[in-house]
Every structure is written in C-alpha cells, then in structure tokens.
Amino acid sequence: MNKTPKAFLITDIICLPLLLVFMFSLPTKLFKSPTSYVIEASNGNLLSAAIASDGQWRFPVADSVPVKFKNCIIAFEDKRFYNHFGIDFLAMSRAMRQNFKARSVVSGGSTLTMQVIRLSRKQDRNIWQKLLEVILALRMELKYSKGEIIGLYAANAPFGSNVVGLEAASWRYYGRDANTLSWGEMATLAVLPNSPSLVHPGKNSARLIKKRNDLLDKLAKLDYIDQSTANLSKLEPVPGKPMPLPQNAPHLLNRFKLERTDLEIKSTRIRSTLNEAIQLKVNSILKRYNNRYRANDINNISALILDAKTGQVVSYAGNIYQPENAALESHVDMIKASRSPGSTLKPLLYASMLNDGFLLPHTLVPDIPTQIAGYSPQNYDLGYDGAISADKALSRSLNIPAVKMLQQYKYERFYDKLKKLGIGTLNQPADHYGLSLILGGSEVTMWDLANTYMGMVRTLNHFNTYKGLYNLEDYKQATYFERDKNENKDYQRNSFLDHGAIWATFNAMEEVMRPGDEGLWEQFSSSQRVAWKTGTSFGFRDAWAVGLTPDYVVCVWVGNADGEGRPGLVGIEAAAPVLFDIFRLLPNGKWFETPTTKLRKIKVCKQSGYKAGENCLEIIDELVPSAGEKTVACPFHKLVHLDRTGTYRVTDQCENVTSMQHKSWFILPPAMEYYYKIKNSDYKSLPPFMPGCENAGGNSVMELIYPKNGAVVYIPLELDGTRGKIVLNAAHRNQNAKIYWHIDNEYIATTTNFHQLAVSPAPGKHTLTLVDENGERLVQFFSVLDKEKNKK
User: Fold this and answer.
1) DSSP secondary-structure letter at 477?
2) Which residues on neighbouring strands pair with residue 39, listed in sequence order?
C-alpha cells in the first residue's frame, strides 16, 4: 500500500513533461512564408496584387472560405472532417489495408488537419515524421476551430506552378474571385492540391478532367449538388495557362508596401477605401487622354479623388500603368512625387489674406510691370490690367497681382501658413523661395495639395456641425484603407483659415470658365458647381488642375516623370479637361452653406473693392470675412477741387473757394492708371490744373514703370556681339505731357504721349531724373550689372 503514492508520483513526473511538450508542440504561427501584397476595393473585389518575395502567388489567409470549396475539398479529401479530432482512424485503417494489398502507396489516410500540419512543416516524411503529424494534428484541433483549419488549408495548399492558396489559384486560373466560381471550376481547383502538376498548358488536361468529373459525381452522391448540376458542370473547360492578376491600383499597392510597417498593419492585405467602379473609370479616362498627349511626347498622367465627407481616398491613379514600355516610366507614383505646383497655391494666399485682414474679396491689386530685387514676374498672356480685383486675379490666375499680394502679406508668413496647412515638402528656409513661392518656386506633392484643399472643405462643411468652432482633425491626411474612426473632439475657436475666408475663396475659384464650355455650362441645371484652379510650372513641365465640391476633392497632374517640359503642357489645356471628365463620374450634391455668423456685412466701395471711405461714390453692402473689418479704407477715392466750370483742377491760390466744385474722384497711381484706362473705357482721368495754378499736392503725376527704384538690371549682348539696351518706361497722368529724361544729370531725350526710351547705360549705379513741362520731377536710382565682373 505504501508504494501506490510513489507509483502515482512517478506517473505524474512522466506525464507532466509529456503534457507540456504536447501543449507547446504547436508553433504560435504555423506558416511563416511571405505572402503577396493585396489591395481590395471597398466592396472586397481585388484591385491589385504583387507576387510574394519568394516568387510565389500566395494570398494572406482570408476571413472566410467559399462554401463550394469547403464541400468540394471535404468530399475529395476528408469526408468525416467535422466528425474527427484531427485523425480519421477509419480512413487510416482503410489506407493501410489498400497499401498492404497493393504493396505500394495507393491511398492516403491523412485528414485535412494533418495536411495543414504537413504543409506548414515542409519536411521529408518518414514514419517518425508521420507520427509527429498525428500528434500535432491532435494539438491543432484543440487550438483551432474547424473553420480556421480549413481556412489555413485553403490559403496554403499548392495549386500548381508558383500558385499557392485558393484565392491566388482562382485569380490565376479563372481571372475571378473564388466566391464567383461555378461548381465545375471549384471542383477543378479542389483536386489540384492532391496533384498540382496537372495544371500545365497543353498537357494533363484529360487526367485533370477525369479527377474533376469523379469529384462532381461524389458531390452528387453526397447530396451537395444534384446529378444534373454535376453533368452540366462536367461540360465546363479546364484552365490552361495562368492569367495575369488585376492591376487596377498598382501605385497604391506599392505605396502600401512602403508604408505598411509605419501604419502598423500586420497583414499584407488591406481592404482599401477605393470605389472599384470609379477607379476603373478613372483609369480609363487617364488612358484615353494619355494616348492623345503622347503625340506631343507627354507620357504621364495621374489623378486622385478624396471623399471630403469621410476623409477617405475614392480613387488613386498614380500614373498610367504600362510596365511593358519602360521608357514611359509609368511605375513612378506621381501622387507622391515632388513637383512644382505652378499657380495651385494662389487660392491659399487669397484665403490667408482674407483670413488675416489684408484685403476684401474684390479689393483692387496692382497689375503692372514689376521688378523686385531682380525678379520680374510675368502674366501668362504677357499683358497688364493696371489694377484688378483680387478675386478676378485669382480666377484668371494672374502672376503679377499674386506676387504683389505676397509682397504685402510677406512670404515668410505665407511659408509658415503652408506648413501648417500640410504642405510637407518645404525643406528649405523661407528666404530660399522668396516671392517665387506663389508662382511654383517650391515643390509639392499631389497628396499634400489635395489633402490641404480637403482640410479647407471639411472645415467649411463642419461649420454647423461644430457650431462655428474648429477641429484641427479636419486637416488630417486622408486614409486609403478602412480603419477605426477615433475623432479627436478638441474644438477650438480659431483655425489656420476661418470659415468666412474659405467660403469667399471657394466662391472666387468657382468663377473660372471651364475648358471647352465657353461659359455655357452655367445654363445647364445639371452642371455641377465646382471650385477649381489650374497651374502650370516654369518651363511647361507640370500641368495641374485641382477642383472641389462639398463632397469631393479631385486633383490631376499631367507631364513627364523625368521632368521634361513640352510646349502646350499647361494646366487649362492638359489637366482641366481631365478634371471635369472625372467630376462627371461623381454624383452631384448641394453647394456649401453660407457661414453667416463668420461673415460681416460692411460698406464697401464698389469701384475699388476696399472698405468704403468718406469719398467713395458708390457704396454697397457686402458680406466679407470677419477680419475684413480690420482692412484699410479706400485709398483711391479722393476729393479734388475744380473750377466753376468743372474743367480744371484748382487751388485756393488761383480760385476762390466759394467758386470751386468739390468732387470725389477715383484716382489710381500713374503706372496703374496707364494700363487700367486701356481696358476700362469708363475710367476718367484727372482734369489738368488750370494754367498758372500751382500743383501744391506734390508729385503724383508721374511714375516710373521700369526700372523700379533700386532695381538691378542686366543688359545682354545682341546676336552681333554689340551691347544691348534696356527700355525705360514711365507713365504720366496727362496724355499730352512731355517728359525730359536725364541719366546722371545728363539730358538724354524727350518723349511725348508714349513714354518709352531705349538706352544702354554703362555698368554701375545710375540716377534717373524725369522732368515734365510743368517742372514736376521724379528721381529714382538703378544699377546695371557688369557682365565681366558677374562672370568672375
């Protein structure tokens, strides 16, 4: 009796280690082979896939296995799968009898569970390995459900060639998702893991058909299908050579490859937010335009659609996809590429100035020849308006007004604003870009640009939702895969741009005439309201178009991935037509609600767009962003004193005050007036002073258009080697006035009416003096570069 406890103790000592070995015998992760990267559309359909790093087509384990495959594989391999614990003793004893009788292996007794173990181990099999498979199969049944086991089998079984797993096999052999396969197609795939070499172009088809047909008969016998379905399924052809997998979002697939680790996504498969139907149509649109543009050696095009309501990517076409033609560089994802933005940042400057109280929506800004520290911006049409309202300058994308506005706003302030709004490619200090920042002197990515505009759209959309407050989460970058929404509800009173400034900016952006429509689109009620902007980079290297509605932000880029410029590569001609073709794919919606509490009704001078001053003639009430109350009063309406006839200007030195007429007059500076009155026939120039009447108001009759005071100019050599000339240009209020020109106090020439003069001054600093016939003087300074010293 005393030995019994010892016997139990010895038994426990022996069994405990065996139990521990059994419990920990199964690896935490059964399959460690690399898997293919897979991008699915929002509806679950396959968009793109890439072969695994070991050269196999192997998809990650799916969430579910098609019922047809379960029935087929169980009928073919393990009909008692749901009734055993990993080992089918009846099947094993049957196989042993058949093999012994035939003196060779003619039947196997492995269950699906044992086959999963064998697939995960990839070792040569002997009697000990088979015994270990039995033990591991028992252990696996304790850890995994039957559904999980069959899922592991479906994902890792060999299907011939370099195809592993049911999903990869379905796409490679039938070009469709496994859930869409017929009974005949599924039965064909179900027999392949047992004999994967049967799939071979032009060979083994008879053996494959026989195996498939036998399985169909077995399915009918087991009542999975009826015999007529089995007979019809036998008529289906078997696959030949593998098919290429879909590549409908290859650039997003590559992006996911690079970002997966940072995104902390374990699987190599994601369910993206892309709308499959829209993605395919966008690809088709880009291909059509690319075929047209390649005649002009413009090889690349890309487009991005963001859903402003959800903050998700709807379509991601980083480029056309033609890997067979390496010269096209279609592998480059232009959505991520840093390129010159052209004029696409101008609305951001306009919004910033409205937001910070620098101007009102229709404030006149200068549009005259300009030189700033050697920098001379030009409008696309090479013309000048003299003065133009800020919103019209934006809708016409005029460069000189934009530079003048940035000069007023300060490029350092705008640089900081762009960084806050999400432009992440500004890697140099603000001084590196200077005023060229507004004309494409920096680089941006389409991703940053589209996300910045989406942040503005979301801010305005949430005006009522957040009760007039702001949430910086609105500027959070879009996501291209489904993730849990953890919105930060940290509402604030201020943001980068307020509701009123954004609303006014979108209104200005809507005024642009659409390409090819000649303004007639406004007559059709079905036409979608779109705020949009184009851009063209220096040297015609990049053509941009960005458009937005309350629901969507669309961005299009056209150009060459290698940066080669091409004539005709401009935003309005190359990118804008693509933009509006894409918008035609998208559903129409309501326009932005007016953020009434973030707007102020103030008195505005209709002629100048400034806040009305005491001398303004025509005053209107206008809704402007709140900061508009801080803007200055109209500087262009002034009180002038005329004689009793109203013909001449006078002073109290030559006319009795009681006889004077006092009138408010719209007066632009001479240089602005010079160009403005050419395009505005109703502009009234100031009357001249009465003869003998002194102008006591100081010099306001002349202005030098070029060169500006302090300018540095360079005079190139002509083709014949002679020294070139610079053209001096001045404006005078009196059309018939004479101007006497002097350089360094030396008389040069006299001009009348048209005040331009070609001269070739020596290198160095010079004093330019202009004197009109009434003795009014204008003195300014400029420098001419010494070519030889400049070379050194």
Assistant:
1) P
2) 48, 270
